[in-house]
Known about the structure:
- Helix content is 27%, strand content 22%.
- The chain is an alpha/beta fold.
- Strands 7, 9, 10, 12, 13, 14, 15, 16, 17, 18 and 19 form an 11-stranded mixed sheet that branches.
- The longest helix is centred in the first third of the chain and has 19 residues, at 157-175.
Amino acid sequence: xxxxxxxxxxxxxxxxxxxxxxxxxKVACIGDSITYGAAIEDREHFxxxxxxxxxxxxxxxxxxxxxxxxxxxxxxxNPYDKLKVCEQxxxxxxxxxxxxxxxxxxxxxxxxxxxxxxxxxxxDLIASFREANPKARIIIALLSPLADRHYxxxxxxKQWHEDIQEAIKVVAETAGCxxxxxxxxxxxxxxxxxxxxxxxxxxxxxxxxxxxSAITGDYGGLSVSPLxxxxxxxxxxxPIVIEGTSNAGDKVTVKLGRKxxxxxAGLDGKWSVEFPSMEAATGxxxxxxxxxxxxxxxxxxIGELWLCSGQSNxxxxxxxxxxxxxxxxxxxxxxLRFFNQECYWETYDVSWPESAVxxxxxxxxxxxxxxxTASPKTSLRMSAVGYWFAKELRDSLKVPVGIIHxxxxxxxxxAWIDRNTLEWKFPVILKxxxxxxxxxxxxxxxxxxxxxxxxxxxxxxxxxxPCYLFExxxxxxxxxxxxxxxxxxxxxxxxxxxAHEYLFPLLVDSWREWFGNPELPFYYVQLSSLNRPSWxxxxxxxxxxxxxxxxxxxAVSSDLGDPTDVHYKDKKPVGERLAxxxxxxxxxxxxxxxxxLFKSAAAPVPELVEGHQPVVVTFEYGEGLKPSEGTxxxxxxxxxxxxxxxxxxxxxxxDRAVLFAPEVxxxxxxxxxxxxxxxxxxxxxxxxxxxxFLAQVE
Length: 698
């Protein structure tokens, strides 16, 4: 990368003088140490104004008017307005002023005391540049990121940084300036901010590219999300937003089926159109065009679009599942479609080659994907759970169904949550993640093994790192409208259910915000049975998480596990149980959505059973309680104050279970299916299994 940047700079330095206009367009880069080019060895070649000069070429003259430590605030500890470099910038009388100030104003000496002056002081600075050149174009930048490693990150800097971002937006609107974003390009790449404040050479190149595009309007031409391919599925009965980027001002024409909409790319290169919602349809064409480029996609479907994600049990392919090859052989269906994101490198117990570590570090972990229709060949690669969910929806709804499949074996929940959410809500999990006990030891050990080739690189990345999979898998897809999320994950967080109880709602909130739907259905799979001691606690925690947010649903799988293999093969019931949740909760089908869920446990007085106090347990979705096989209900236990549990005899009475244990005269606690690998067998009239639970008797 360094050699590449040097080549760009050199190409400008050796450019011949013939053909160069007599008067060059002058660009003044105003700012602090980030504009100056601090913290890199060769700022003369790699500060962002230098790289900007290389990008703009000989028709431009770029001046670097950055000053280390400068504040925007006039009463700040080092006000830019009072510095010699500011006067030099005015005398430069630039045609374009690019201003990036405010990072140093997060200092405790500044923002807490003088925040009310920020907008006025910024407007005064802009006015002074306009006085120097009334025709000057003024571009102001949102602040570049501060990494969570910054020593004042949580003592105010994070909050003040965001407050200043909002103030900068007010300045841009008030002054009629162009607003550019120095934050978003760098934010997913914290290793390009090695000291937590200043970019490295590549990071400065990102800032230069941002300014270059803003000045020239060159955003690389027409482009859209990688979700746009032949055979794609668009969500029905919702406004259809088609969006992308193009060069500033480009006229963009979008034709979907027989309808055509036109728009123009903004100064930031972004464009979007919104078609009215449509009913289910197939065989549509989608054409997106500018005067220079035409993107054509065929066989577009309007139907139901779901996102399947998680770790290996969601990724588990149909080819590996019980009955999977047979299902694939009969799967040919042009309106059952998959967008299957697959990774370049599996997280197996191996050391990755250097090329893999470098690519992963740059968020290049997933292979390019495309929409495919179900066939005996393509379905084999699909998530087994996702396939059987989609098949059930297809059979029930009779509309096209699309599945975006995006799962990574062994991945913890925190890897799928966006960075800003974790910075605000769980910042400690970001700290030294490879040695962080909040992250399961197995996951950290496997990550360390995979990236061991570059063990000395403290910024090496891995799919198990917090935020990584959001940034490499979810973020690039853009903001498609989806019907809901299917989630099968937890094996890599089961060591600490208390942390997961905090992380899981953050995940739900993160994705609901990203996909623009605060009520986005989110259906997840409770962990199966496996001989791992923490799993009963984790399963019960997952049950209780149903109350943490609205529009959640849980499919029980504890009756399907394997005592020694986390990757059990009977995945069809899991997909079908998830489909029940969706069909009942989102599509109006009169179905029992779930197995019995614990509601209450009480000790009625003065009822006795064989001289012992019974416990009566009631359930939601408890109609028709029965054992799944045999005549005896297995899995209930009672305990007194000593918490010594004993097997309980169960008598079923309608939707309640009456329990007693000869060893426990005064029950205080009741639990069900409280074994890592359980043979508990209580089901309801729909044959759906009851969830693990632990409760206190009322």
